[in-house]
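2024-03-11 09:14:02 DEBUG pipeline.ingest accepted 1 chain
2024-03-11 09:14:02 DEBUG pipeline.ingest length=288
2024-03-11 09:14:03 DEBUG pipeline.predict start
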Amino acid sequence: MITLENNYLKISIAAKGAELQGLYSKETKIEYLWSADPKYWAKHSPVLFPIVGSLKDEHFKYNGVDYKLPRHGFARDHVFAAEKISDTEVVFTLSQSDETLKVYPFYFELKLIYKLIDRKLNLTYEVTNTGTNEMLFSIGAHPAFAVPNTPNTTYEDYYLAFNTDEKLTYWKLEDGLVANETESIELNGHKLNLKHELFYNDALVFKTMQSSCISLLNNKNDYGLHFHFEDFPFFGIWAAPDAPFVCLEPWCGVADGVNHNQELQQKEGIISLAPHKNWTRFWEVECF
């Protein structure tokens, strides 16, 4: 476990999955990250790579060969090499191995760079194609934030505030795959009130969200967080049934559609990266 700390925040990250394990504010004395209680969901903030969501029948085809990958890929289950740059920055690295090449035929280097900047945690994903052919991949975030996170508040006291959207249209899921049916939610002053029933049919999957910041706030006090993200074409919001958390998930990639032909090159949202090229995205969470 590696710990980063500045005057405002203290975080911990595990080498397995390079997964954020704690996000604590010294000012508010609040732990903002979900505790990973296995009663509901035993993870905190996994990285989704080299796919996001589920493949149809857990398989994809590439150059005439069939490969099997579990939901959200394999990176979250592998141990990353870690290099602590300073008290406020660490770099985790994962590369292909004989094991990964059996299920994903690409050479790559995946870096997760955690950095504390005042009251913000910045997480940058950097993907490098270290092979000689195009690399196809998706990547996404899956951080779970505790709800409630302060005493004398309940789940229903909390809401999500969107900096742009006034209406949200989400795609339904069928057995983890994106269905052909959508539903819309009219927001009240850019606010989505949290209630457990929102997630009884799995995640809400968005393809047309306009916002670049979602704030987790409540009606009882002034504590909360701002979750900043840009250039992620898809977004998921999820919680396990009746669980005391909410996941805010910016994605570059999305689960297969129910009618997908399983060809990786034709997968919605798939990213093509030329040999020896880099690709980056980042998100930030600001605690207050």
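2024-03-11 09:14:41 DEBUG pipeline.report The radius of gyration is 19 Å.
2024-03-11 09:14:41 DEBUG pipeline.predict end
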